Amino acid sequence: MDKVAIVILNWNGAKMLRQYLPTVMHYSKGEATVYVADNASTDGSMDMLRVEFPDCRLIPLDKNWGFAEGYNKALQQVEAEYFVLLNSDVEVTHHWLTPLVEFMDNHPEVAACQPKILAEHDKDSFEYAGACGGLIDRYGYPFCRGRVFDTVEKDNGQYDYRQEIFWATGAALLVRSQDYWDAGGLDKRFFAHNEEIDLCWRLRLKGRKIYCIPESYVYHVGGGTLPKSNPMKTFLNFRNNLTMLYKCLPEEDLRRVMAVRRVLDYVAALEMLLLKHDVGGFKAVMKARKAFRAWKKDFRADRLQIQRNRKVDHIPERRPYLLLWQYYVKGRKTFADLP
After folding, report:
1. For the whole model, what pTM was predicted?
2. Percent above pLDDT 70 for the chain
């Protein structure tokens, strides 16, 4: 069994792999086994990997299972103490794994951690998807140390301390294999988006901890699969976020939070339509609300099990305020400005 297995999930990403996999192979040598799991790519990814990266182990999948189930199926074929879920568009750095693994070895109460995520195109700035560790507000809006909504900070060392967080980014997530499977893995029904936050929330409810370890840092391109304004991305984010809330919220919060979110989602949809003239985004939000209502019943058993097995009632990194109010009304644009 491997100590550490780095698993990169690929779908038609031969160009990204050719550019960024060399750093993973070089800087992880002797510390981890590197796998690429392929979601039935049609761009010659597998042939390229066999020729150009013969030391990389390959896990071919029979179709595009998406991010969540693709990883579940790939990790079922890997035996390791630690899994590292790593995006194909991540450039890693010298000894990036060492502080992550050493921290996990010395803190058995921690289920998962992430490095500091910096932008590949601007290496002095945080990257949107993860920055220096994720939190969430009362109504399900995620944010990070270093990124609140669209405000992304420069990295001036302001978050260079180890910190317990609510969620770790799926772009570079180190997780104990036992914790991953004990929590049920990623929810395959999500396909993509919010699946790592959902997993981390379930881990936190089990009393397990998540950390950011900024001594380790990597550079992430971001948006490698779908551009930020893509209607499908909007649909998946809204539908999956609502589903995550339904699964994980405590009973005393569920009714109020979902009622407030209903109003906020319709406001967001109208803003897209009337102010941004984004008809695709408007339709995506409306479609997401409809899809959530349609499949909500399918998650009833999940919710009952999660609530029955929860070991903590309060997670401090789930902040008690509405982030939209803090950001747009109070003008608090950075993590340090927030209550």
Report:
1. 0.96
2. 98
